[in-house]
Design a protein that fits this description.
The complex is a heterodimer. Chain A is mostly helical. Chain A has 14 helices and no strands. Classes of the chains: A mainly alpha, B mainly alpha.
Chain lengths: 277, 311
């Protein structure tokens, strides 16, 4: 009778290990090629770890390529998008959480709709609209587009955090003479700080990953975000695997940091937008 | 006014008129910035895009812009590449959703019961979700590349390939590249959602069932599955729409090639707009895609009504 649970437990642990290996292997390989010296890359083939590791590729990428600029551009775009979206979404999420008003149903329907239709439809018209305003090939243009794309999802996320805070708190403050906005700003917002951090993290990650619109809207190297820069690097120098993968590792760092930050809120985040990848 | 803005219990007549107006306007003021932005950056371009479908809009041609009626749609009905993209979309979406769901469900079941190191295991297996999609695509295309990646050599050693070659350049197999990358990237989404649903199932149900002598399989089929069913249905439904629109991996890994074998409708739209700068034709395809997705959603709603009326 005792052999069976042990067998089951072993099978369970092995299955978990298999999943972990599958999840981490591509990232491991990225790191491995990034630290493999060029002369060993082809001679050692598919060894799991090179006999000699080097940071030369990182050194090159950081000092002699345009990647620091791409990195900075992406940080500016994703950071500004995250801050603006969180600001707007905390206002609209508060409205959805605390008020009953005419048109609320339509507002929710509108926001759900924006999560369903193919955003690739908007590539051409948005380019046509932004171009005469001088907002193509501009980081500001990207921030505006990303902000709009992320506001609906962030609104639902913030609403779910506000829903978790009892209404009595504002009501008490308002009986003491505060307006609702003052109560919102001074009592409710500080209580939602973890939720605000999670929203910042989700939006930052989404903006950091966005590809199609930055490809379409950005053409010059000066304004290129990380995905645009990395893809043009790949098509230009497609033999420099070590450098490409070193750049890839760099792109991974902010995403992983934010992943750690939002890990506790993954469920809430994924179900808030319901369709958000 | 029908809405109730203040909930502090003061009778409305005691509050001055100006204040009542301000209170009534409050929810609109809170949501106005978000609404304005959504309308300006999503709804206006959407309407404009619909109008492009009936116009000749080519970015580099200053004389384009004329209204041409249904010409794009006539061209589209003759476009073999479009029909291929439609079939590829079905294949891409079906295989990706099925594998993501199946592997995600198993992972959620594995993570459901507490064990030593579960927190760490969970963080590690969910990590691919945080990897930016362009990087996931590049990373997998490197793994499939025989020059730097191990996969072709492993496939060769296993006898699956006659020589270590790149499946992304093999017309018969190329679609598997983006599908595998998509599965890798999307398992966490299903696992996280299903795990949350699993943990909401009351534990005493299982205890009661095992006291009554139900085996593990019986417990899974008569407790776990019925409880998960609504989550499974909604997640698969939404995910299907999302994945059929998800072109990033394909654009990064194969750009639709070789010979359009991995082109899906969404990536075809992007290619028309981005490479050929033919905004009119791109918008016409997009309109067809939108109609198909609407039809799919309607079908689901009708199916749901039908199932509910039968139950």
């Amino acid at each position: 009778m005792r052999a069976k649970p042990i067998l089951l437990i072993t099978a369970h642990r092995l299955a978990i290990l298999a999943y972990i290996a599958f999840a981490l292997f591509p990232l491991y390989w990225l790191l491995k090629v990034a630290v493999t010296p060029n002369d060993l890359l082809y001679s050692e083939g598919i060894r799991l770890w090179p006999s000699r590791a080097t940071l030369d590729h990182f050194d090159f990428v950081l000092r002699h390529s345009a990647f620091p600029t791409f990195f900075k551009n992406s940080l500016i775009v994703s950071g500004s998008t995250a801050v603006i979206v969180t600001l707007l979404a905390s206002l609209s999420g508060y409205a959805l959480s605390r008020f009953n008003f005419r048109g609320k149903y339509w507002l929710v329907a509108l926001m759900l709709l924006t999560q369903m239709f193919p955003l690739v439809m908007l590539v051409a018209p948005i380019f046509k609209i932004l171009s005469p305003m001088g907002l193509t090939n501009s980081l500001t243009g990207l921030v505006i587009v990303y902000t709009a794309f992320n506001v609906p999802f962030a609104t639902f996320l913030m609403q779910s955090f506000f829903d978790g805070i009892p209404k009595d708190l504002e009501e008490a403050a308002m009986i003491d003479g505060a307006t609702q906005f003052v109560a919102f700003r001074q009592i409710i917002l500080p209580l939602t700080l973890p939720g605000i951090a999670a929203t910042l993290g989700f939006v930052f990650t989404a903006a950091w990953s966005e590809l199609l619109f930055s490809l379409m809207l950005i053409s010059g190297n000066d304004q290129a975000t990380f995905p645009v820069g990395l893809l043009s690097f790949v098509s230009k120098f497609s033999v420099d695997f070590g450098q490409m993968m070193a750049a890839g590792v760099l792109a991974l760092i902010p995403a992983c940091l934010f992943f750690l930050l939002i890990q506790r809120y993954l469920v809430q985040g994924l179900t808030a937008g319901a369709v958000k990848g | 006014m029908a809405y109730v803005a203040r909930q502090d219990g003061l009778p409305a007549s005691r509050t001055p008129l100006m204040k009542r107006i301000a209170d009534g306007a409050a929810p609109y003021l809170y949501s106005a910035p978000a609404i304005i932005l959504i309308v300006a950056v999503m709804l206006v371009p959407l309407a404009l895009g619909v109008s492009y479908a009936f116009r000749d809009i080519q970015l580099l041609n200053p004389f384009s812009g004329a209204f041409i009626g249904l010409d794009h749609f006539r061209a589209l009905s003759q476009d073999q590449a479009f029909y291929r993209a439609l079939r590829n979309t079905l294949w891409w979406t079906g295989a990706s959703v099925f594998l993501q769901f199946f592997l995600g469900l198993i992972l959620a079941l594995l993570l459901d019961k507490p064990f030593y190191g579960r927190g760490l295991a969970q963080a590690l297996v969910f990590l691919p979700w945080a990897v930016p999609s362009f990087l996931a695509g590049l990373n997998w295309s490197w793994l499939f590349n025989p020059v730097v990646g191990p996969l072709p050599h492993w496939f060769y050693a296993l006898g699956l390939m006659s020589e270590p070659s790149n499946i992304l350049s093999d017309p018969q197999l190329a679609m598997w590249g983006p599908i595998i990358a998509n599965v890798w990237w999307g398992i966490p989404f299903f696992a996280i959602t299903l795990l949350a649903a699993l943990q909401a199932i009351p534990r005493d149900l299982y205890e009661a069932a095992s006291i009554d002598g139900a085996g593990p399989m019986q417990r899974f089929l008569s407790i776990t599955l019925p409880f998960l069913a609504p989550t499974i249905a909604i997640t698969i439904l939404l995910r299907t729409v999302w994945i059929s629109n998800f072109a990033d991996l394909i654009i990064v890994m194969t750009n639709g090639g070789p010979a359009d074998r991995t082109q899906i409708v969404a990536s075809y739209i992007f290619t028309q707009a981005f490479k050929r700068l033919d905004f009119g034709y791109a918008s016409a395809i997009a309109l067809v895609l939108l109609a198909l997705l609407l039809a799919y959603s309607m079908l689901i709603v009708i199916l749901r009504q039908w199932l509910l009326s039968k139950a």
